Amino acid sequence: MAGGIDLHMHSFYSDGEHSPEYLAAQAKNAGLRVISLTDHDTVKGLSGINGIELVTGIEISCDERDNGFDDIHILGYFIDTASRRLSSFLERVEHERTGQKREMIRKLQQFGVKISFEEVRRIAKGEIGRPHIAKVALMNNPDKFNAIEDVFREYIGVGKKAYCTRNAQLTLADTIELVHSAGGLAFIAHPGVYIKKDSLKLISMFRDLGGDGIETIYPYSKVLAGSVVNGIQEKKIISSFRRLARSGRLLESGGNDFHGSIRPTKIGGLPVPYSFIEAMRIRLGLGI
């Protein structure tokens, strides 16, 4: 969409397949005006985005287990990457992520999956993510898996038998405060991955804690395993979250959560209006 935006994508610095330079080139080819690189728990790839307007971004995992949420993803936009507090947090997370992925691989081995940490490390150019683990598991075990989704569904999806949580994960309140301390805005990513009553509960809690917005536009029909959401349902989900954001005075964001061939989405594939950026800038006092 000419003049549009895409505020959710991942490079090989987290769990995507491609370089930041590749993502920027694809965004320009798609006629986009603004993008945000939102790698998981790292900002290392942001310096590789050139030739297109960039909103500094990140996706941070947190949990609220006491409230029934094991893995909440928060998008941070317009963050100051030089923030000492953010940098300290990311250094700690990098160490913990490595330990978490080692443990997942160890569990997979116990279940008879042929895989090693060294193999996964070789294909991950940046931080090791679960898609890297799934890719090696699929490659080494064609008798067990037909697709990457099978590895997630049976073993490494949240709550599955080889899944491990990180130690000392932030709470939702901690994460919002961390993003704010870096001068950014905090958004709930893809709220439609939860059943409706849970998503409403999470959004309400998030708003009460000072969260800024929700990702209202997201390609659920392409991302959710097993195609449990079709295109018509996706439009209804997006419309409902857009209405909720307006009624709750929450900002909106949107993106395609592009990772590469890992999932069937493309940069700029689902149109997101530039007005979302304008509203964020106004909230931050940056003007438009």
Main attributes?
alpha/beta, single chain, globular, 12% strand, 288 residues, 3-stranded parallel beta sheet, TIM Barrel
Written overview of the protein:
The radius of gyration is 18 Å and the shape is globular. The two termini are about 20 Å apart. It folds into two domains: about 190 residues, TIM Barrel (Alpha-Beta Barrel), CATH 3.20.20.140; about 70 residues, no CATH class. It is built from ten helices and eight strands. The chain is an alpha/beta fold. The mean pLDDT is about 95.
The fraction of residues in strands falls at: 5-15%
The H/E string reads: EHEEEEHHHHHEHEHHEH
Give the helix tally.
10
The domain tally reads 2
CATH class category name of the largest domain: Alpha Beta
β-strand number? 8
Q: What profile does the largest beta sheet have?
A: 5 strands, mixed
How far apart are the termini?
Answer: 20 Å
Radius of gyration: 18 Å
Cα shape: globular
Structural class: alpha/beta
CATH topology of the largest domain: TIM Barrel
Spans of 5+ residues with little confidence (pLDDT < 50)? none
